[in-house]
Amino acid sequence: MTSIILALVIGAAFGAVLDRVGASNPSYIGKMLNLTNLNLAKTIMLAIGTGSVLMFGGQMLGLVDVGHMSVKSAYIGVFIGGLMLGAGWALAGYCPGTGVVAAASGRKDALFFIAGGLFGAAAYMLTYPSWKASGLLDSVAGGKVTLGAVPGAKYDGLTALPGDLLGLLLGAVFIILAFALPERIIGTGPVTQPAE
């Protein structure tokens, strides 16, 4: 029961942060995707970079158990699904997480987005045997692999580079990019923030 309460508290806090930085505002997401306001992209990069540095640094210091690391198999269908997710994100202005946050903050259009996502998931579930038979769900590139080998993990690395160091390096690159990117690539004038 404690873990459920903790998950709800952490989820609510994360949702509040997503809403505060504008991730639940479709127009703000659209401005990020058309490169006229990169503040949200910079926030996402900073979060990914910081999380990567903390996770891989924690693994190197023995504070994070590598056994909790989960790697999903690579297969053609996941790449197609990623393209579909990106297209849906651009069209709707929501990804699955931000759609739920937007619904919780009172946006009625997010309810339609969530309903569409549930409908799509149900359609995939009902047609799963066809997708499985098509070969699109067969593992590629070794299946469950990481970019670098992490000591103590049961996953192979695509390169001989130490995974912990590679994770720290990539995290640092994301953090540097978050601060180095301009506020916009297209357009001029002041960047407007989402309405409160």
Automatic annotation (TrEMBL):
<feature type="transmembrane region" description="Helical">
    <location>
        <begin position="165"/>
        <end position="181"/>
    </location>
</feature>
<feature type="transmembrane region" description="Helical">
    <location>
        <begin position="76"/>
        <end position="104"/>
    </location>
</feature>
<feature type="transmembrane region" description="Helical">
    <location>
        <begin position="110"/>
        <end position="128"/>
    </location>
</feature>
<dbReference type="Pfam" id="PF04143">
    <property type="entry name" value="Sulf_transp"/>
</dbReference>
<keyword id="KW-1133">Transmembrane helix</keyword>
<dbReference type="InterPro" id="IPR007272">
    <property type="entry name" value="Sulf_transp_TsuA/YedE"/>
</dbReference>
<keyword id="KW-0812">Transmembrane</keyword>
<keyword id="KW-0472">Membrane</keyword>
<protein>
    <submittedName>
        <fullName>YeeE/YedE thiosulfate transporter family protein</fullName>
    </submittedName>
</protein>
<feature type="transmembrane region" description="Helical">
    <location>
        <begin position="43"/>
        <end position="64"/>
    </location>
</feature>
